[in-house]
Amino acid sequence: MRNAVVALALGAALFSAQDAAAATVFATQIDSGRAGAAELGFTTTPVKNTNRAAGGNALGAPDAVFANSGGGFYSLGLGGAAVFGFGVDFVRAATVFEVTFGCTGPQNANGNCNFVETADVYALEGGYTPFDGAFGLTDLLSLGFQKVGEIPNGVANTAGGATISISGPFSWLALVDTSPAVNGRDGFDVDAVSVSAVPLPASVLFLLGGLAGLGVLRARRPA
Fold this sequence. Notes:
Layout: H1 2-20, E1 23-26, E2 29-32, E3 74-75, E4 81-98, E5 118-124, H2 137-142, E6 146-152, H3 153-156, E7 162-177, E8 189-197, H4 200-219
Antiparallel strand pairs: 1-8, 2-4, 3-8, 4-7, 4-8, 5-6, 5-7
């Protein structure tokens, strides 16, 4: 029994080491599904300009737009969606950075700015092929995307962004606009998206290491 406990402790330590190695990774590709402004295939080049329909504005690290100090962002469009890739599978957490001018944090009880813009967050494990045009929630659900959280703009429009917990691993993250349909609005504005990433091959090695330790201790057990 003592040996088994030691082996389990070894496995836990290895997994803890894996968690410690988790890195923050910002989106490197986006499939932007905004109606009337969708780009064909993935966008992989970050841009920072005034074109709210340019998916590249949501790639890379945030550029302090939350402080109304310049940069660019991608607007999902009312009811619109976008899928983000990071070049690695991810676990534990995702953070979304949003832009709402004139708001520097929650202004009401729901965590939103008074100018409300919201989005739901979905995740997918496995392969993903970009759409050839506009797409929405129904399309994402048909591929197996699972809802993992909701983002209010008052929280996301801060230096730290809005973070949600994610049990993984997942390979793709999607944002779907759920903002109120008010004239003049163009949906949730995305400045950047990041995930807490752990390469899966490393996690497999840690698991195998724990199992191997258990096998060694079991073999040494006296008859």
